[in-house]
C-alpha cells in the first residue's frame, strides 16, 4: 500500500474551441464543448498511482464543497475516511479553460491557511492506524496549508520509526523536511533551498550536496526538466530526459512522485526507479492537462531508448486502449490497412499523405495467412513481422497492428478511427469500416509503383 498525504484539490476543465475575439475585450471567446472535474494536486499523484495499479491510502483536509471532492476520491475506489472536512476552509478548485489544445486562462478558489493542530492529529492517528501495511509514504506539498511544519515532522518521525520509505515533493520552506528519506525538488526549488544560483553542473552539484547535508536527507533527487534527473546518494548520478515532444508540463511533478513511489514500493533499486520515473515523465508531458501514464506507455518509452521500434507494433487489446486514450486527448485518429508486402515509394507517399489528415496514424497489416488467402500461395514475399517492423520504422506511422482476418473490420471496430483512408481505386466501391469511421478519404497511388510490378520485374530479370 502507498500512502499519499498533502494538498488535495479539484482540477476543473472547460474544453472548447475558439474562432473569434470578444467584442467586449481583447480576449478569445471559447465555445465550451466539454466540462469535467479531476483530482488535482496530491490527488493527481493518486490518479497516477491508480493508473499504474497501486493500492492507495489517502489523507488530507478539505473544506466547503467537500461532496464534489469526495465523489472524485470514491470514484477511484479509495477509502475517504482519511479525508477530513474543515468547514472553515475552501476546498481548492483550479479551473482551466482549454481552447484548441491551448490553455487560455486559469482561475482558482482556495484556502491556504495552515490546518489546525486538531486536524494534524487526525491525520497522524489515521496514518498510524495503517502504518504496518504501508510500503511507502508520499507527501505532495503544494503549500496550501495541509503539510504544516509540525505535521510534516510528525510524519517523518513516524516513517523513520517504522523504517518506511518517504518521498516528499517540496515547496519553499525546506526546513520542515529535515531528516526525510528522500526529497524531490526541481532545480528552481533547489536554488531557493540552497541559496545558490545554479548556472551549470558544478553549481548543481554544490547546491545538491549542501541541501542534502543541511537537511540530513538519505537521498536528494532533483528534477531538471529537459536535462533529466540528478540523484544525490552515496554518489552523484544523472539520468537524461526522454521527452521528445512537450505539450504541457502540468502535473509532471506529480507523475514523477507517483512513479518513483510505485517503483520503490516494490524495489530498492534507486537508479532503475529514476529511469522508470523519467520514462513516465516523458509520456505525461506529451499530453494536455494533469494527465496520467500507464505501465504500457512507460514500457513503450523505455523500449524507445533501445532504438527499437517494436513498441509501435501492438495487439488488438493494446491498440483499443491507446485509441481510447487518444480520443480522451481530442487527438484525431487516422487508420489505413494493406499487405505492404514489399515496401516501396508508393506506400511511403501514400502513408505520408494519410498522416497529414490527423494526429496519429494507425496501420493495419494483413498477417501471412491473410495475405495467402488474398494474393495466393506464393505470397507474401516478406514475413508479417518484417513488414510490420518496416512500417513502424517510418516516422509518419505511429502504431502497427497485424490482423488475421480477410478484412480489418474487427480491428476498425476496436479503433473507431476519425478518418479511414484507402487508395483512390476504391472510388465508387464500398470501403470496409466506413460505417464505423467518421469519414473516409481516398488517396491517389503513385502511378506504376506496386508490389506486383516489383515482383514481375525481378522475375523477368532472372
UniProtKB/TrEMBL annotation:
Asked if the record carries the keyword Transferase, the reply is yes
Q: Locate the Carbohydrate kinase PfkB domain: which residues?
A: 2-292
The catalytic activity, as recorded, is: D-glycero-beta-D-manno-heptose 1-phosphate + ATP + H(+) = ADP-D-glycero-beta-D-manno-heptose + diphosphate; D-glycero-beta-D-manno-heptose 7-phosphate + ATP = D-glycero-beta-D-manno-heptose 1,7-bisphosphate + ADP + H(+)
Q: Where do the segments described as Cytidylyltransferase lie?
A: 335-462
Region of interest called Ribokinase, as start-end residue ranges on this chain: 1-308
Top-rank taxon, per record: Bacteria
Domain (Cytidyltransferase-like): give its ranges. Answer: 335-442
Binding sites annotated in the UniProt record for ATP: 186-189
Q: In which pathway does it act?
A: Nucleotide-sugar biosynthesis; ADP-L-glycero-beta-D-manno-heptose biosynthesis; ADP-L-glycero-beta-D-manno-heptose from D-glycero-beta-D-manno-heptose 7-phosphate: step 1/4; Nucleotide-sugar biosynthesis; ADP-L-glycero-beta-D-manno-heptose biosynthesis; ADP-L-glycero-beta-D-manno-heptose from D-glycero-beta-D-manno-heptose 7-phosphate: step 3/4
The positions flagged as active site in the entry are 254
Question: Pfam families of this UniProt entry?
Answer: CTP_transf_like (PF01467), PfkB (PF00294)
**What general EC class does the enzyme of this chain belong to?**
transferase
EC identifiers of the protein: 2.7.1.167, 2.7.7.70
Q: Which NCBIfam families match?
A: cyt_tran_rel (TIGR00125), rfaE_dom_I (TIGR02198), rfaE_dom_II (TIGR02199)
Its biological function?
Catalyzes the ADP transfer from ATP to D-glycero-beta-D-manno-heptose 1-phosphate, yielding ADP-D-glycero-beta-D-manno-heptose.
Member of which family? In the N-terminal section; belongs to the carbohydrate kinase PfkB family. In the C-terminal section; belongs to the cytidylyltransferase family.
The record's subunit annotation is: Homodimer.
Name of the protein described by the UniProt record = Bifunctional protein HldE
Amino acid at each position: 500500500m502507498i500512502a499519499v498525504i498533502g494538498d488535495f484539490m479539484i482540477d476543473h476543465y472547460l474544453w472548447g474551441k475558439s474562432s473569434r475575439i470578444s467584442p467586449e475585450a481583447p480576449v478569445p471567446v471559447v465555445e465550451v464543448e466539454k466540462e469535467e472535474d479531476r483530482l488535482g494536486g496530491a490527488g493527481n499523484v493518486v490518479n497516477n498511482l491508480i493508473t499504474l495499479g497501486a493500492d492507495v491510502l489517502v489523507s488530507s483536509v478539505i473544506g466547503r464543497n467537500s461532496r464534489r471532492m469526495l465523489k472524485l476520491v470514491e470514484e477511484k475506489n479509495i477509502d475517504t475516511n482519511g479525508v477530513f472536512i474543515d468547514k472553515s476552509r475552501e476546498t481548492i478548485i483550479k479551473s482551466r479553460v482549454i481552447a484548441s489544445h491551448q490553455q487560455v486562462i486559469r482561475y482558482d478558489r482556495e484556502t491556504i491557511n495552515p490546518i489546525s493542530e486538531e486536524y494534524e492529529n487526525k491525520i497522524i492517528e489515521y496514518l498510524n492506524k495503517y502504518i504496518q501495511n504501508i510500503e511507502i509514504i508520499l507527501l505532495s506539498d503544494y503549500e496550501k496549508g495541509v503539510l504544516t511544519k509540525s505535521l510534516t515532522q510528525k510524519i517523518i518521525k513516524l516513517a523513520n520509526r517504522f523504517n518506511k520509505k518517504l518521498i516528499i515533493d517540496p515547496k519553499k520552506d525546506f526546513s520542515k523536511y529535515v531528516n526525510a528519506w528522500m526529497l524531490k525538488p526541481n532545480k528552481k526549488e533547489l536554488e531557493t533551498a540552497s541559496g545558490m544560483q545554479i548556472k551549470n553542473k558544478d553549481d548543481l552539484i554544490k547546491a545538491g550536496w549542501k541541501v542534502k547535508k543541511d537537511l540530513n536527507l538519505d537521498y536528494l533527487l532533483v528534477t531538471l526538466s529537459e536535462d533529466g534527473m540528478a540523484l544525490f546518494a552515496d554518489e552523484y548520478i544523472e539520468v537524461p530526459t526522454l521527452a521528445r515532444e512537450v505539450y504541457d508540463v502540468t502535473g509532471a511533478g506529480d507523475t514523477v512522485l507517483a512513479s518513483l513511489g510505485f517503483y520503490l514500493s516494490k524495489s530498492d533499486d534507486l537508479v532503475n526507479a529514476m529511469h522508470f520515473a523519467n520514462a513516465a515523465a516523458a509520456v505525461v508531458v506529451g499530453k494536455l492537462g494533469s494527465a496520467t501514464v500507464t505501465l504500457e506507455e512507460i514500457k513503450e518509452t523505455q523500449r524507445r531508448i533501445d532504438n527499437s521500434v517494436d513498441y509501435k507494433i501492438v495487439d488488438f487489446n493494446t491498440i483499443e486502449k491507446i485509441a481510447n486514450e487518444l480520443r480522451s486527448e481530442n487527438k484525431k485518429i487516422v487508420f489505413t490497412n494493406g499487405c505492404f508486402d514489399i515496401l516501396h515509394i508508393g506506400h511511403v507517399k501514400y502513408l505520408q499523405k494519410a498522416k497529414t489528415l490527423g494526429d496519429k496514424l494507425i496501420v493495419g497489416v494483413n498477417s501471412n495467412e491473410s495475405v495467402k488467402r488474398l494474393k495466393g500461395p506464393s505470397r507474401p514475399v516478406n514475413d508479417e513481422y518484417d513488414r510490420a517492423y518496416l512500417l513502424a520504422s517510418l516516422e509518419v506511422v505511429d502504431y502497427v497492428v497485424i490482423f488475421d482476418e480477410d478484412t480489418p473490420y474487427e480491428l476498425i471496430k476496436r479503433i473507431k478511427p476519425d478518418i479511414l483512408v484507402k487508395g483512390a481505386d476504391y472510388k465508387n466501391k464500398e470501403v470496409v469500416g466506413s460505417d464505423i469511421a467518421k469519414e473516409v478519404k481516398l488517396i491517389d497511388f503513385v502511378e506504376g509503383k506496386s508490389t506486383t510490378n516489383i515482383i514481375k520485374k525481378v522475375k523477368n530479370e532472372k
